[in-house]
Design goal:
two-stranded antiparallel ribbon; alpha+beta; four-stranded antiparallel β-sheet
C-alpha cells in the first residue's frame, strides 16, 4: 500500500490548484485563486486551504491607498505579493498541522 506522501504526489491535483503543501499529518494545504464573476473571470485573491482541518488564509490581490476625503484613493493590484503571502502561510501551516486527510467516501 502506498504511503500518504506517495499517494499525494502521484495523484492529479484538483482543478485550479496552483500549489500544494503536504502537512505533517498527511493532508494537504492547497493554493487556488479566488475568482470574480466578471466575464472573463479574474483572480481577486489567493486562497490557502487545509484539506485536513478548517484552517485557511485568503490574501487579496488589491489594497487601497490614499484618501477618499481628498480624492487620492485608488486600488493597487498586488497579485504576486498576495500569492507569496499565501504560500508562506501554507508552508508554515503544513509544517505544524497534524490533522489527517478528510475521507473521500
Amino acid at each position: 500500500m502506498p504511503s500518504s506522501a506517495q499517494t499525494t504526489t502521484s495523484t492529479a491535483w484538483p482543478e485550479g490548484v496552483i500549489a500544494r503543501y503536504l502537512t505533517v499529518g498527511g493532508a494537504t494545504v492547497d493554493l487556488t485563486h479566488r475568482m470574480t464573476v466578471h466575464n472573463p473571470p479574474e483572480p481577486f485573491a489567493t486562497l490557502a486551504l487545509c484539506t485536513g482541518c478548517p484552517a485557511s488564509e485568503s490574501v487579496s490581490h488589491y489594497y487601497g491607498a490614499g484618501s477618499e476625503a481628498n480624492g487620492t484613493y485608488k486600488e493597487v493590484k498586488r497579485a504576486e505579493y498576495a500569492t507569496d503571502q499565501a504560500r508562506a502561510w501554507a508552508q508554515s501551516h503544513a509544517e505544524t498541522c497534524r490533522a489527517l486527510p478528510r475521507p473521500t467516501a
